[in-house]
Write a structure and sequence with these properties.
globular; 24 strands; disordered N terminus; Neuraminidase; 1 helix
Length: 323
């Protein structure tokens, strides 16, 4: 199989890394495009604040949340890591999947489903509290999520990760930064060979700011100097970035963070969004759970001492005709 390097050039004019401190995101790229791309379709532009409804939620969780992630496909999974330790999987009806585990995970990235040794499995990359990267696998024949080695060049001080689809080239794209070098994003590809997972190194991308989060969107790898959680919301002509910063709520951008709009969440009759979300995940297309316009997942405290993951419907963004 021919390995093709992931293209890090942006789909809109590249933001100078020096501006990253005054913008929400800074686009990391190998080189600037020779010319500006065509303007995005009008339907994809988000130019005003948005209100979205909270539509479903997990029951009260066992502990405060440290990270969440989503996988897509016909058997989508929500992965939840707890601050006190433990990793739990849920389906998109917010029902628990499998037995709870005691894995101590500080960061998670989006999952991908694949066949490994003829078993259909969903694979979530994560970072343990000691800074090593592992894969957390669930599916055929497993009673609970399993932890699998996923060595990234022997790194043991990984601070954060992000993942994206790999098409036919592998299971997923995976980028990370470390606590000892938080100004470099190291990208690569996760592949499977004879039932074993491996990571193949790709491009290193340098920034002039400490990286707090990263995200893959379309053909762009993006780093943020401020947002502690970022998620892509992609469907058709809509390509947006959702983010959480320490001093703001949920925000959205349709131009790689050059402009950002506030997103307010409208509570349902029995579903209440966290006032200060601590973790974020999103998918513009969700084939299970009854989310025709995709879903945004927000984790946090909905009442004192009561933590939940709340599902939010982004259809007014992803399905403009539903406005």
């Amino acid at each position: 199989m021919e390995f093709k390097r992931w293209r890090l050039s942006a789909t809109s004019p590249v933001v100078n890394a020096g501006l990253g401190l005054t913008l929400l995101f800074a686009v990391t790229a190998c080189s600037k495009p020779e010319k500006a791309p065509d303007a995005a379709p009008e339907s994809s532009a988000i130019t005003a604040d948005v209100e979205l409804p909270a539509v479903w939620a997990t029951r009260t969780l066992d502990a405060p949340v440290s990270a969440i992630a989503l996988s897509g496909g016909s058997s989508a999974i929500l992965a939840v890591a707890y601050e006190t330790g433990g990793l739990q999987f849920f389906n998109m009806e917010a029902e628990r999947l499998g037995e709870p585990t005691n894995f101590r995970v500080k960061a998670l990235a989006g999952g991908q489903s694949t066949y490994i040794d003829k078993a259909f499995l969903t694979v979530f990359p994560g970072v343990t509290r000691d800074g090593t990267v592992k894969a957390y696998v669930y599916g055929d024949g497993l009673m609970a999520p399993a932890q699998v080695d996923l060595t990234v060049d022997g790194e043991t001080s990984v601070a954060g990760i992000c993942s994206g689809p790999a098409g036919t080239e592998g299971i997923m794209r995976l980028a990370f930064w470390t606590g000892t070098n938080d100004r470099v994003l190291q990208a690569g590809m996760v592949k499977e060979n004879n039932g074993e997972l491996s990571w193949e190194r790709g491009e290193s991308t340098f920034t002039d700011f400490p990286i707090h989060s990263c995200v893959y969107t379309d053909d762009t790898l993006i780093a943020s100097p401020r947002a502690f959680a970022v998620a892509p919301l992609i469907r058709g002509n809509v390509s947006a970035l959702l983010s959480l910063e320490p001093d703001t709520g949920l925000r959205i951008s349709s131009d790689l963070g050059m402009t950002n709009q506030d997103v307010s969440i409208r509570d349902g009759l029995s579903v209440f969004a966290p006032a200060k979300p601590v973790a974020l995940a999103a998918m513009g297309t969700m084939m299970s759970g009854g989310y025709p316009g995709g879903v945004i997942a927000l984790a946090g405290e909905v009442e004192p001492g009561q933590n939940q993951v709340v599902f939010v419907d982004p259809s007014v963004i992803t399905l403009p005709a539903s406005k």
